[in-house]
Every structure is written in C-alpha cells, then in structure tokens.
C-alpha cells in the first residue's frame, strides 16, 4: 500500500529571506532521512509561508525492506580451539550478531575458512520510522537562531505547533512542549484553526482558511494581480525577482494594491525613490511605457481587500514621510562643496586599527596612479583617475547616504555631476564599489576599473597588516569578495601585472609619499598573494576549469593573475592531447628529483665540461633554447617549449645517473634539473595534475 505523509512546522513569522532556503533544507533533510532508512517514496511537495514549513510526501512504502545478509567473522582456526570447542572469539561474534554458535557456518574465502552467520533483519514499519522526523526538524540550521522560554534549544523562531499525519494517523513525537497533532492554523486574522482528517486535504483546507500554502501558486497570483493593476493603468512594472520572492514570503493571502505620492518628489534622483520604495517599503515602482518613473507604487497586503483604502492611505503616509526625509537631505547636501565633504572624512574612521577614510583615499590615490600607468591609461584618463581617487568616498558623509546607506557611490556620482565634475570622474566614483557581489556587474570604464582595484587592494593589504585576516566562514569585511572582484576585473580588462612586485612597489610609493599607515604591510605581501590565488581558483572553477589544473597554476611561482588564468586555460585546452600524459610525467619527474638539490638563483650555472654523455649536452642545448625570453612569452608558448623538452628529458634520465657518487657531478645534474623545474613552476606546479593513461 502506498502511503502519504504530511509534516508541518508551525512557527512565529520567519524572516522573508530565510523562508525559501529553509523549506529547501527541510526537503533535502527529509529526503536523505528516508533514503538512509531505506523507505521508498514517490515525491515530496513543499509548502511554505512566513508561519509554516511543510512537506507532503507521497507514495511511501509500508515498511523497510527485509534484509538477508551473511556476516563474516573470524577465521575457523581462531573460532575453534585444538579440541574443536568454540572459542571466546566465536561466542562473542555470534552474540554480537544476535545469534548463538549453533548458527555458525563456515565458508571458504581465498583458501581460508571463515565463520559466517546468516542474518535476517526484518524491516521496521513506516509509522515507527517516521517518528525520526523529529531529528530531521531539530537538526536544521539557520542564519540566525533564537531561544525562547527557559529552553536551551535554538531554532529560527519559536515552534508553535506540529502536524505529523501518516494518512489519517498522527505520528507521535514531541519537540520541547509541542506535541504533534492534526491541528494546523489558518490565516492569523482571516482564518481559524483546522483539524485535518488526513494528510491529503492539507492544501485545500488551508485555502479555505485564507492560506495559500504553495509558494509557487502564491507567487503566480501576486504576479497576476500586479500585472492587472499595471495593465488597467497603462503602467510598466519591473517585477524584480528578488523583491517578488521577498514579498511572496511575507504573505499567506496576497492582495495587491496601488498607491500614490506627490509629483514633487520626482525631482529627487530615481535611484533614491526606487530605494525608498523597493528596499525600505517592499513596494514595486511604476514607470510609463518609456521607462519614466511615475508617482505611484504597487504593494501587496497579507489579507483580503476589506477596507483596502485604509491600507493604501497608511502605506502612502509611511512612504511620504520617507520621501520628505530624502528631499530634505537631497537639498541640504547640495549646499556644501565636495571639498567640504572631503575635509570631513579626516574625522571618519576607515578602521580604528588602520586609518581615517581620508587617509585611505590618499593611499588609494597613490596606488591608482601607479596601476593606471601599468594599465596604459591615457593622460586624460590618468588625470580623471587622480581626481576620482582624491574624492571618491566623499558621499559617505552626506545626509542622503547617512539615511540611505545603499546609495553610497550612487549619490557620489549624482553629486559629483551636480558640482561640475567630469562624467568619467563621476562614473568612477560609483563604479569603484563594483562588483558588489561575487558575480555582480563589473565596472564598464577603465578609470572605474583601476579605482576599484586600488580600493580593494588597499583594504585587503591593510586589514591583513592589522591582523584581521578572514578565517573559516568569518569574513566581516568581505575581503574574499573584494579579492574575487580584483581577479574578475583583471581578467575582464586583461591587466597584465605581477601582484607581488606590484604590491611591493605600491608600499614603497606610499612610504615615499608619506601616506602609508603605521603597519607592517611588506610582511603581508605573500599572504595577500596566496589569498588572491584562492580567489583565482574559484574564478577558474566558475569557468569550468578542472580542479587539479586550477590548483597547479595557483601553486606555481608566478603571481601574475592574468598569466595564472592563461596557464589554466592552456592546460585545460591540452589535457586531452594524446601526448599530454607523457609530457606531464616527464616534467614532473624533473620536479621531484630537482627537490633533492638546494640552489639559489645565482648558483644555477651548469658546467658543460662535466657532461659524461651526449644526452646531457642535448638537454642542455634544448633548455638553453627553450629558456630564451621564456618569462616574456605567453602561457601557450611556454607550455609548447616545455613540451618540446620531453624527449630530451627522457633520454637524459635513461643515460644519466643523476645522484652520482661524485658530489660535483651530482650537483651539476641537479642544477640542470632545477633550471627546468623553475621553468615548470613559472607555468604552474604540474606535479599537482592528475593524469591518467
């Protein structure tokens, strides 16, 4: 018989952003639990609202399948003594299997007889298994957890009720003081409690009590309602997926409505109006068919349309108050000059262990100038970059950004243009924050790209020097995201520079300009480089590069981000070549043996007069040719040159005893191999590659 099971966790209102990941987690945990318990099922349907997480599992088997298995024990010679009596080992083994020595049989395994016991394990009934759903519920994790009452147990919000119905039978278990039952709750204001007869009527009964439990159906209804309002008024609506998801997780019975605000507020920049509506009030903004913002908004009520005009008036009042604040700040901010705001940054802390925000801008100005020249920016671009770097944080102390923190950079752009700054300067001010997420939009201009890199490099370097290095999942200053941003911008803009050398040079320039913080940044260059290489790995993974290739190129000696990426792409392109395995094996053999020597770069002169066979001379000539201008070539050319050494390397190892008894000969051999190993490491640590025949 196929069975259906309903599990519902009733809660105090869950934060909207937690609802969807929570129901997905519950579904996965329940699925894994049933599979672990060997209970087959047909499907798991999810239901979620701000007040409930529920699963409807269909096609469940009546019980676990029975298991018959042979359990192997000790060898026969250990199981019986010389008189043929059972030993303690045999008795203990049989007892451990719930049997007696009389149940023991012997089987031959590769010429040796072993003890076996045949076990029949009867499957547990479904009803007994499902009590384990308690552990599925309590094992869940959330971004924020809370306790309630006198309990030490933590959950996303207090549990108010539990439903666990197998067909028409309650599955009994208890979490804290809440026992499972067949009673669920309807809409907080419009509905009432419902006693469910069986699991199958859950969705229908909730709908009768003004709860649309299916999140997908609820979202579809919201979209239809909003689109109808827009169509009726000839408006255009941007149904932002993130906002729609959030609104959907705030309601159980959605009713969309629209409201208005005074046209005078349209003099405020659109970004301010949209932020006020979307981010602060969860409203959808309205435009005409050409995309021009209109003085209206659309919102969604958690309820029906009863007395909807009062709801509209209340929302209009709240939005108007916020727009009044925005207009006040917008007008007041324009009364001061950019220089006034920059001066105020001298009293704003970037971090109390590092510097003020003004001092950060001074450092970034030095860094941006050097990076801009490395990138080949024009004289005008360098001029724009210098100006942008000298003021780019000024909007942080404006009233508007103080009230609407989400608008930092955006208002810097707006105010810069109002104060007569060039478009390139204004754009760079807004672009320096990009990307604002790991896969977010990148700066579109050269000036904005360099400013973004300089700002992020300064943050990473100074936080590392101040001892605030990300560990585990702890990254309060989003340094990983900033490093990812650097990698992505470098790749997008094809910026060719060695990170270690550049960081050293930037620190020296800051010292010369007397803008460096009182921190030991030099000691952190290698740590910052390694940190950045971890982000390169993630970037390559996103591109579909094989994990061992990403590991190899980021473990090499080269700290040029662009070259690391190019090396990975080269190896990825050649990994399926017929001779790839042979090439890599030859090169990695050189790497491994060369580690037996220890030579400095200025001690790598190979003495040709010590060669004992033709293969040494042939390899020496091949390496001399391959190493010419090696470090100024592309990754593809370097790989090609290394590949051409394969035959010479193999011949060398066939004819040469590398670890000769004569130290002079041995060291000459190892110097020769170290030169090749250094060339290999420039491309990457190829010993980390997984090559298969």
Automatic annotation (TrEMBL):
<keyword id="KW-0067">ATP-binding</keyword>
<dbReference type="GO" id="GO:0005829">
    <property type="term" value="C:cytosol"/>
</dbReference>
<dbReference type="GO" id="GO:0005524">
    <property type="term" value="F:ATP binding"/>
</dbReference>
<protein>
    <recommendedName>
        <fullName>Glycine--tRNA ligase beta subunit</fullName>
        <ecNumber>6.1.1.14</ecNumber>
    </recommendedName>
</protein>
<dbReference type="InterPro" id="IPR006194">
    <property type="entry name" value="Gly-tRNA-synth_heterodimer"/>
</dbReference>
<dbReference type="GO" id="GO:0006426">
    <property type="term" value="P:glycyl-tRNA aminoacylation"/>
</dbReference>
<keyword id="KW-0547">Nucleotide-binding</keyword>
<comment type="similarity">
    <text>Belongs to the class-II aminoacyl-tRNA synthetase family.</text>
</comment>
<keyword id="KW-0648">Protein biosynthesis</keyword>
<dbReference type="InterPro" id="IPR008909">
    <property type="entry name" value="DALR_anticod-bd"/>
</dbReference>
<dbReference type="GO" id="GO:0004820">
    <property type="term" value="F:glycine-tRNA ligase activity"/>
</dbReference>
<dbReference type="GO" id="GO:0004814">
    <property type="term" value="F:arginine-tRNA ligase activity"/>
</dbReference>
<comment type="subunit">
    <text>Tetramer of two alpha and two beta subunits.</text>
</comment>
<keyword id="KW-0436">Ligase</keyword>
<dbReference type="InterPro" id="IPR015944">
    <property type="entry name" value="Gly-tRNA-synth_bsu"/>
</dbReference>
<dbReference type="Pfam" id="PF05746">
    <property type="entry name" value="DALR_1"/>
</dbReference>
<keyword id="KW-0030">Aminoacyl-tRNA synthetase</keyword>
<dbReference type="GO" id="GO:0006420">
    <property type="term" value="P:arginyl-tRNA aminoacylation"/>
</dbReference>
<keyword id="KW-0963">Cytoplasm</keyword>
<feature type="domain" description="DALR anticodon binding">
    <location>
        <begin position="585"/>
        <end position="679"/>
    </location>
</feature>
<dbReference type="Pfam" id="PF02092">
    <property type="entry name" value="tRNA_synt_2f"/>
</dbReference>
């Amino acid at each position: 018989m196929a069975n259906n099971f309903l599990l519902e966790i009733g809660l105090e209102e869950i934060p909207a952003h937690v609802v969807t990941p929570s129901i997905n987690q519950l579904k996965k945990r329940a699925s894994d639990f049933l599979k672990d318990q060997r209970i087959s099922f047909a499907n798991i349907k999810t239901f979620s609202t701000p007040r409930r997480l529920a699963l409807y599992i269909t096609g469940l088997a009546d019980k676990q399948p029975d298991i018959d298995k042979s359990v192997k024990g000790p060898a026969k010679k250990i199981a019986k003594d010389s008189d043929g009596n059972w030993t303690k080992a045999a008795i203990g083994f049989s007892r451990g299997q719930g049997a007696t020595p009389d149940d023991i049989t012997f089987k031959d395994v590769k010429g040796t007889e072993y003890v076996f016991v045949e076990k029949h394990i009867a499957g547990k009934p479904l009803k007994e298994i499902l009590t384990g759903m308690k552990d599925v519920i309590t094992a869940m994790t959330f971004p924020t957890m809370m306790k309630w009452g006198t309990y030490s147990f933590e959950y996303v919000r207090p549990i108010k009720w539990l439903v666990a119905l197998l067909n028409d039978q309650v599955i009994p278990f208890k979490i804290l003081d809440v026992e499972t039952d067949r009673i669920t709750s309807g809409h907080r204001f419009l509905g009432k409690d419902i006693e469910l007869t069986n699991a199958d009527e859950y969705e229908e009964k909730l709908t009768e009590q003004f709860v649309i439990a299916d999140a997908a159906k609820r979202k579809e209804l919201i979209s239809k309602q909003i689109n109808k309002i827009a169509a009726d008024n000839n408006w255009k609506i941007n149904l932002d997926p993130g906002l729609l998801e959030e609104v959907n997780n705030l309601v159980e019975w959605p009713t969309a409505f629209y409201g208005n605000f005074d046209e005078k507020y349209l003099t405020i920049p659109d970004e301010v109006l949209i932020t006020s509506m979307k981010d602060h009030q969860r409203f959808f903004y309205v435009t005409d068919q050409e995309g021009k913002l209109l003085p209206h908004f659309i919102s969604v009520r958690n309820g029906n349309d009863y007395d909807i005009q009062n709801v509209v008036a209340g929302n209009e009042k709240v939005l108007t108050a916020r727009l009044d604040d925005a207009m006040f700040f917008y007008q007041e901010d324009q009364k001061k000059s950019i220089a006034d705001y920059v001066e105020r940054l001298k009293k704003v802390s970037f971090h109390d262990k590092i510097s003020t925000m003004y001092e950060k801008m001074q450092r970034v100005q030095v860094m941006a100038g050097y990076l801009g020249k490395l990138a080949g920016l024009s004289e005008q671009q360098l001029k724009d970059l210098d100006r942008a770097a000298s003021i780019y944080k000024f909007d942080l102390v404006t009233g508007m950004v103080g009230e609407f923190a989400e608008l930092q950079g955006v208002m810097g752009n707006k105010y810069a243009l109002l104060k007569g700054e060039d478009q390139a300067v204004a754009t760079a001010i807004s672009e320096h924050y990009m990307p604002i997420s790991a896969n977010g939009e990148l700066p579109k201009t050269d000036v904005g790209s360099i400013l973004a890199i300089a700002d992020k490099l300064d943050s990473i370097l100074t936080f590392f020097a101040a001892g605030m290095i990300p560990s585990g999942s702890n990254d309060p200053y989003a340094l990983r995201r900033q490093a990812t941003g650097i990698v992505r911008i470098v790749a997008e803009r094809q910026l060719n520079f060695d990170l270690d050398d550049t960081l050293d040079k930037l620190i020296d320039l800051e010292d010369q300009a007397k803008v460096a913080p009182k921190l030991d940044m030099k000691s952190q260059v290698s740590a910052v480089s390694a940190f950045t290489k971890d982000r390169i790995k993630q970037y390559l993974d996103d591109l579909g590069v094989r994990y061992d290739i990403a590991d190899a190129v980021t473990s090499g000696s080269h700290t040029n981000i662009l070259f690391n990426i190019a090396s990975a792409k080269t190896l990825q392109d050649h990994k399926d070549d017929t001779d790839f395995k042979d090439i890599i094996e030859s090169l990695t053999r050189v790497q491994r043996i060369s580690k037996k020597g220890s030579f400095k770069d200025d001690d790598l002169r190979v003495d040709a007069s010590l060669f004992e066979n033709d293969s040494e001379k042939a390899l020496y000539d091949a390496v001399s040719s391959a190493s010419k201008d090696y470090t100024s070539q592309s990754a593809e050319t370097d790989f090609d040159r290394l590949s051409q050494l394969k035959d010479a390397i193999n011949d060398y190892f066939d004819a040469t005893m590398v670890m000769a008894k004569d130290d002079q000969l041995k060291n000459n051999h190892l110097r020769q191999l170290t030169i090749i190993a250094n060339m290999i490491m420039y491309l990457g640590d190829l010993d980390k590659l997984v090559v298969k025949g």
